[in-house]
Amino acid sequence: MSSARQQIFANLRGALGRRAEDEVASPPSIALGTIPLNDRSGDVLEARFRERLAMTGVTLETLTLDEVPAAVADYLARHALKGSTAIAPALASLAWSARELPVDIGTADRQHTLGVGQAYAGIAATGSLVMVASSQSPSALNFLPEHHLVVLSRARLLGHLDQLWPLLAREGASASQAIQLITGPSSTADIGGQLLYGAHGPRAVHVLLVD
């Protein structure tokens, strides 16, 4: 080690009241089970999440899980979208037939203008949606349709991103699974500095926050 580096470290130790021969204490271990899912009340998290979503151009409505098919039908009508809707297998048990909606349960392809998926969690600090790829939640739903509706349980709202990794480990998520963080619709300003939506993915993202 150079003398200059030695002097820098000596100055740091002096400022901290330490000596070169002092042992450095190991950081305390944290048991996964002791890490809280949320560090704020549900109302505070939801308000923060709404605020951040609005900043990224994402809309949100609150409802019950049973009301999701009706909300999807309303979204289709409101935006005059035609054709079949791609639905994540995780949501297959909902009453889609009762709304007479043409749906394809499974992944999405280019023929689908609307995809409905289920988020693993939401990050209030950034307004991000956490999508964990699996057979029940195909990744293509997040990228191919122009309109992306995301069902998110209010109980899965996290305060910050650093709460996500312990949760994934605690619930046994596979290291080989793709984890996507979605913060707003796809956008770019590469062409003439003009902000355009839908360049590399959905042009619109709408969250269905369920109890």
Question: Could you explain the architecture of this structure?
Answer:
The protein is an alpha/beta fold. It is built from four helices and twelve strands, in the order ααβαβββββββαββββ. The strands form three sheets. A six-stranded parallel beta sheet has the order 1-12-7-4-2-3, with helices on both faces. The longest helix has 15 residues, at 42-56.
Distance between the ends: 59 Å
The percentage of residues in β strands lies in 15-25%
Which sheet architecture does the biggest sheet show? 6 strands, parallel
Shape: elongated
Order of helices and strands: HHEHEEEEEEEHEEEE
DSSP summary, beta strand count: 12
Low-confidence segments? 27-36
Can you give me a brief rundown of this structure?
The protein is an alpha/beta fold and 211 residues long. It is built from four helices and twelve strands. The strands form three sheets. Strands 1-12-7-4-2-3 form a six-stranded parallel β-sheet, sandwiched between helices.
What key phrases describe this protein's structure?
alpha/beta; 211 residues; 4-stranded mixed sheet
Spell out the blueprint of helices and strands.
Layout: H1 3-16, H2 42-56, E1 59-63, H3 68-78, E2 85-87, E3 103-105, E4 114-118, E5 121-123, E6 128-132, E7 147-153, E8 157-158, H4 164-170, E9 179-182, E10 187-188, E11 196-197, E12 204-210
Parallel strand pairs: 1-12, 2-3, 2-4, 4-7, 5-8, 7-12
Antiparallel strand pairs: 5-6, 6-9, 10-11
